[in-house]
Amino acid sequence: MLRTNKQKQKSERVAQTIPVSQVHHHLPMNTASKKILIAEDNPGLARVLTFKIKSGGYLPLTCGDGREAWSVFEANPDIQAIISDQEMPYLTGIELFHRVRQVNQSIILFLVTGRQLELSQSSISDELNISQIFGKPFSPGALLSTLDAALACERASSQPISAPVDLSHVSLTDRRGFNEVRE
Known about the structure:
alpha/beta, Rossmann fold, 5-stranded parallel β-sheet, two-stranded antiparallel ribbon, 6 helices, 7 strands, 34% helix, phosphoprotein, CheY-like_superfamily, Sig_transdc_resp-reg_receiver, Bact_response_regulator, two-component regulatory system
């Protein structure tokens, strides 16, 4: 399942959870300009994630700890998504996400953890509106597919679905054939 976010106003946030398989992948998207922040203290996993995100056409910004990730986030307000390990030096993934949510309510957040069950059952993922929690071990390909889907949903939700329609001139008839009286 994928949680998508949309912030209409500062105090109003709309979230929707949908299966990744139901996302329409035909939406055109220029991924090359999309910055993805990766916060991972394991150098091997950081290299794998960086390679996978780059192979998906995105621009990965990779950090080795939570404090560095926060600095990179502050310096790059156009980051589209954050992929963070939970257990890192200086700031955990959750602590990083708390800071991020104070600044940006709609950014896509993915958490990577060895304690998936604990976090998926807690209210913290709802409170921070984490789009997806990946339990270790996980498939970097699945993470990339989920990222593609989340960004496609974000793009689709930012497009106006339709313009307001004025129906004041339309007469309504009930199923017995009587016109509705409007007051």
